[in-house]
Design goal:
With about 210 residues, this protein is an alpha/beta fold. The protein has a six-stranded mixed beta sheet. It starts with a strand and ends with a strand.
Length: about 210
């Protein structure tokens, strides 16, 4: 069935646990905790043959990506498009405090994230546009390769929703734990010697890289 297709494989890896406790991190640039480093090292202990690593610029992704790229002798590209959504006034705030003080807004955000962004936060539609622009550029640059994308829970949810054809409003239904691993395969059909993306499939979610 797939004889006339070239394939690109993209592995998605969420960063590990971070310092700072249970807060809305978003674009707040916090470091990984010792546990977070351990989670990521364990998840990547067996390389499935990655040829390149792409990372969010935030240190909870980028610093581990630098270590992994050095260990595996792979090229590393930092891509700002894959940075986490900005939570506006909730950035860096304790989640329990925000729920206590603005519980109704938080409930609206989870029920209707497209129309109820955090105060002064990044609109979900703008976030999706940014992430997908980075995704399409990445696929163009790395077509036919097996790459690892180290990013954030929100970023990964947007990408999974796009692959699965889910409405953006339901991305909170996707569980993306710390150091979770997912794999997407993209098929490109050869047309006039110019490979064009044809369709995408999710091979696994919250699995283990092998």
């Amino acid at each position: 069935m797939y004889d006339h297709y070239k394939t690109t494989t993209v592995d998605l890896l969420r960063h590990g646990e971070c310092e700072g406790g249970n807060i809305y991190r978003g674009s707040t640039d916090v470091a990984l905790s010792d546990t977070g480093w351990q989670q990521l090292r364990q998840q990547t202990s067996d390389s499935p043959g990655w040829q390149s690593i792409i990372s969010s610029p935030l240190q909870r992704c980028a610093r581990f990506s630098e270590e992994l790229a050095s260990r595996l002798t792979l090229p590393l590209q930092v891509a700002p498009a894959f940075q986490e959504v900005h939570f506006g006034d909730w950035e860096g705030q304790d989640i329990a405090d925000v729920w206590r003080e603005q519980g109704n807004h938080v409930r609206r955000f989870f029920a209707d994230p497209i129309n109820a962004a955090p105060p002064n936060g990044e609109a979900l539609s703008s976030f999706e546009k940014r992430v997908l622009a980075g995704w399409h550029l990445m696929l163009k640059q790395h077509q036919g390769n097996h790459i690892l994308l180290v990013a954030h829970g929100g970023t990964i949810r947007v990408l999974l929703a796009q692959v699965l054809g889910m409405p953006l409003s339901r991305i909170s239904n996707l569980e993306v734990p710390y150091a979770s691993a997912s794999r997407i395969k993209i098929y490109h059909h050869e047309t006039d010697n110019e490979p064009e993306p044809d369709f995408q499939t999710l091979l696994f979610h919250n699995g283990q890289f092998r």
